[in-house]
């Protein structure tokens, strides 16, 4: 029982210390973020000037949303304007890096992909006729689904 009371007293002391530390940090923040006397006087004068009868409101347009564009004159050399180059692009995608995140079945030949797909459909049909759907899922997980071409 005495140990419980001692533990409660220690916990109470720790909580009081944390609260005191938080209050001290809050006071420091207020002092750092507090408005200086000069800024307060300037603000009061600005408010009084706005509230006076001599104040004339003016239209305000924000330039925040305006898109600034700089005009640039592009002068092409006469030689560049008249010459054209023939450019050819490859018809198929050529992958140079074998260490990619894509699955290897995406890089198979069309014939091989069709063979694997046909074998998978044969296994599926055989499994359905024999009622072996559980074994089918395990066997077909290593075979890619559908014919894919690179």
Model description:
The protein has helices at residues 2-33, 37-51, 78-82, 110-130, 133-140. The protein has 150 residues and is mainly α. The protein has a domain at 1-51. It is flat. Residues 127-150 are annotated as: Disordered. Keywords: Coiled coil. Residues 135-144 have a biased composition (Polar residues). Residues 12-40 form a coiled coil.
Concise account of the structure shown:
Residues 12-40 form a coiled coil. The protein has 150 residues and is mainly α.
Mean residue pLDDT = 77
The low-pLDDT segments are none
SSE order in H/E notation? Answer: HHHHH
What structural category do the secondary elements indicate? Answer: mainly alpha
Strand count, sense and closure of the main sheet?
none
Number of strands: 0
What percentage of residues falls in helices of 4 or more residues?
A: 40-55%
Give keywords.
mainly alpha; 54% helix; flat
Ordered list of secondary-structure elements with their pairings:
Layout: H1 2-33, H2 37-51, H3 78-82, H4 110-130, H5 133-140
Helix pairs in contact: 4-5
Coiled coil: 12-40
Keywords: Coiled coil
Region (Disordered): 127-150
């Amino acid at each position: 029982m005495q140990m419980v009371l001692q533990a409660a007293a220690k916990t109470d002391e720790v909580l009081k210390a944390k609260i005191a530390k938080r209050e001290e940090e809050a006071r420091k923040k207020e002092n750092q973020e507090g408005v200086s006397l000069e800024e307060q006087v300037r603000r009061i004068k600005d408010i009084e000037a706005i509230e006076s009868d001599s104040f004339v409101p003016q239209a305000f347009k924000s330039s925040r949303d305006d898109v600034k564009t700089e005009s640039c004159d592009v002068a092409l050399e006469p030689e560049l304007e008249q010459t054209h180059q023939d450019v050819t692009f490859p018809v198929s995608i050529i992958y140079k890096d074998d260490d990619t995140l894509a699955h290897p079945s995406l890089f198979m030949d069309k014939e091989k992909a069709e063979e694997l797909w046909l074998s998978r459909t044969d296994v599926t049909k055989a499994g359905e006729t024999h009622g072996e759907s559980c074994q089918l899922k395990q066997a077909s997980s290593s075979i890619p689904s559908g014919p894919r071409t690179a």
